[in-house]
Amino acid sequence: MIRSIGASVRSVHVVLGSVVALAACASSDTSYHIETDGPLRVKDAWVRATNVTGPGAMYLTLENTDTAAVTILGAATPLAGAAEFHETTEMQGMEGMSHMNKLDSIPVARGATLAMKPGGLHIMLIDLKKSLTLGDTVPLVIRLSDGRTTSVKAIAREQ
Ligand SMILES: [Cu+2]
Question: How does 41-53 read in b/e, with b if 16+ C-beta sit within 10 Å?
């Protein structure tokens, strides 16, 4: 199983194709940075470099190495007003348009891996407090329903 998405989903916003095309580019970076802290093992965490303040997007792969299922409830970074877990989906019958749903909780089964990448699951950084230039580090803390946290450091890159 690659991932399981929580049932608790609500609609946040609709974005036009031009924005989404940017987000759909697959990563070609080969860096394989692994961080282990708490019950989640995180690797290859990155944010899209942006020279404007506004929403940013973070991607990472996490594995639940705990002895039981965990539930992700949220995330926070000092560099943004809010960090939300979103999933991008194509809107049926409306070419070029996609839709982002905010996930209020994300269950991750024991041993399961959750891959966040452009065009799918991502962490939206809302109200970025500074531009993200190549090589910048963005710290983020992921919060679980049992109160535990996992710290992540994401590197800014182009895609
Ligand atoms: Cu989003």
Answer: bbbbbbbbbbeee
What separation in Å is there between the alpha carbon of 145 and the centre of ligand 1? Answer: 22
Contact 45, 154 (CB under 8 A): yes
- Other CB atoms within a 10 A radius of the CB of residue 37 amount to 15
Q: What is the pLDDT of residues 38-82, one digit of tens each?
A: 789 999 999 999 877 778 999 999 999 999 999 999 999 999 999
Domains of the chain: 9-27+39-157 (2.60.40.1890)
Helix (H) and strand (E) counts in the chain: 1, 12
| Residue 67 CA, ligand 1 centroid: distance in Å | 30
